[in-house]
Amino acid sequence: MSSATDARTEVSVAPGESVQAALDAAGPGTVVRLAEGTYEGSLALTEPGVRLVGAGSGRTVIVPGAVAPTTIPPLHDAPDGVVSGIAVHAVSDVEIEGLTVRGFSGAGVYVHSCSGVRLRDVEADDNRVWGLYLRESSDLAVERCRASASQYAGVAFAFCPEAEAVVSDSDCTGSAFGVFVDNSSRVRVLGNRCHGNAAGILLLHQTYEGELPGGVRDCLVAGNETVGNTLAAGGEEPDALGAAGPPISGVGIAAIGVERVAVVGNRVHDNRPSGPSVMPGALVLASSADWGGSDAVDNSFEWNVVTDNEPFDALVGTDPSAQRFRNNVVGSSQPEGPFGGNGPQGTV
């Protein structure tokens, strides 16, 4: 292990050396740089202002091994004792870049009670419960990341009331939800590709027993492609995809119980259910008031292209007069208004 002092202190770690030892010794402004290779063992980031930088996703890979001690709270919707690949707890101004986290029993990256966290070019692959899970935190960025094959979401923001967060230019596949905005506000979902999930993008306000109150407000969902989301999630089996929730399949974008959310310029196509779904549409707006959430009010849907989905391209399950629908191209809708009928069209 070698170090060099520049404008920032930099520590280099090679396969076989302890990444956790380097993180434990790092002070604010330290770059811990991982060479290409595979590193065994979970990691805990406990110091502010640290950058953990790999050689690139798929080139620097973190896999299960020794478990690093962490004070992070238990992971939501997970069995006791699961281990997350990288735990980031109660620190600020942390960056993780250019690595893959694979095969952990919890989340790939689990962020809790933090501010100023940046994840760039991070791949979360085949982590059992969540991919990239950011909770009760603010000033967050998930950029150019990839998340696949988790029980719940590839990328999730949970209980972040003033998230000031962005997930952009990322690819999410093979999970219950590609991107999940769960009781979090001020989140921007921009230019992502969500495919091969049960639901591509889900924004949801609901209450959970023993959890914080929440809401989903002042979010922007723009320029995303949600395509081929055909998996089936939900059910009574504890290991099922999305087991904690109702049956969902074939959904591109769903906004449930949200306020002041703008859904703009997205392409939603070829989403088809392969099992039961409480939301039989590819673009869904609905209330969650019946299960402790809220009505959906003051939302905007503009310039979206929603075609070639089954059974309906769009489903509006709340008062359309409390929303704005402009210049969308939509095939079939249920009910026929506000998108206006059966057949591609723009609504003004």
TrEMBL record:
Ranges for domain Right handed beta helix:
84-236
**Keywords for this protein:** Repeat
* Top-level taxonomic group: Bacteria
InterPro entries in the record: Beta_helix, PbH1, Pectin_lyas_fold, Pectin_lyase_fold/virulence, SCF-Subunits/Alg-Epimerases
One Pfam short name: Beta_helix
Residues covered by region (Disordered): 327-348
Q: Provide ranges: composition bias, Gly residues.
A: 338-348
PANTHER family the UniProt entry points to: F-BOX ONLY PROTEIN, F-BOX ONLY PROTEIN 10
Listed name of the protein: Nitrous oxidase accessory protein
Organism (species): Saccharomonospora cyanea NA-134
